[in-house]
Amino acid sequence: MAMGLYLASVTLIILALMGLLSVGGSLLTYYGYTLSKDGDRYIRRSGLLSRQEVSMRESRIQLVAIKQDWLDKLLSRANLFFEQNRSGQQQDQELMAANKLLVPSVTTAQAQTLVSHAFNDCSPMQQSYRRVSEFYVTHHLLVRLLPLTVLLGVLGFELRQWVGVAVVATGMTMAVIVLLLRYWRWGYSYDARYLYVRNGCIGLDYRCCPLYKVQQVKYQQSVMMKRRGVASLKIVLASGCVTIPFMGESQARDLMNRLLYETESTRRSWM
């Protein structure tokens, strides 16, 4: 009992120290943050010990992302990302990455205003999103969660590890809740100019991009998905990929044809 309390105390202390280090690092990195616009170029500057500067031309922006965790939702705040071509670049920290321009902890109204500056009449937080198919939940339950839960549960019964069985049952319940939350958050929408994708769990992420900046569209469908009449789309931009899972088959084909038509018929440069 004493050993358990000791380990719990040590764990809490380590987590608290890690949290303090994270907060301290954020303060050093974000100190004096400013965002300005010079002509068609966005410029952000920040940093306490060393001053960092990133600039990005408006025409090079491929995708805009608005990200909210649970605390951001409570405070009506969001982190906004402008993303450009990342070909040949390494995965860096979000603030330091040369292909991303981060605007941290703005209000949701400010985030919407900044999105509208980059993409005219683009409103990702005000869209009516279509949900993905309910087969999203069924697939993950049957293919991923259920086999592992049964295996661990049988193992626990055989070894008479009742605490382990209880942990597995609790873990399964939590996993199902997370799965349902993710299903509830998934959504997509598009209009004559933009594609919008929403996802998350407790928080929310919104992504939007102009249709003409799509470079490739991959239609994905397994045998099980075909029987259920669903498919997934993998949409490739210069800034990365956007995936919409478990759409209705007809909706997936309609969106794919719309994106490919826009890519083929539009002469506008994605740069």
Automatic annotation (TrEMBL):
It comes from the Bacteria. Residues 183-258 form the YdbS-like PH domain. The chain crosses the membrane at residues 6-33, 135-156, 162-184, 230-248. InterPro entries: YdbS-like_PH. Keywords: Membrane, Transmembrane, Transmembrane helix. It holds the Pfam family bPH_2. PANTHER family: UPF0699 TRANSMEMBRANE PROTEIN YDBS (PTHR34473), UPF0699 TRANSMEMBRANE PROTEIN YDBT (PTHR34473:SF2). This is PH domain-containing protein. It comes from Salinimonas marina.
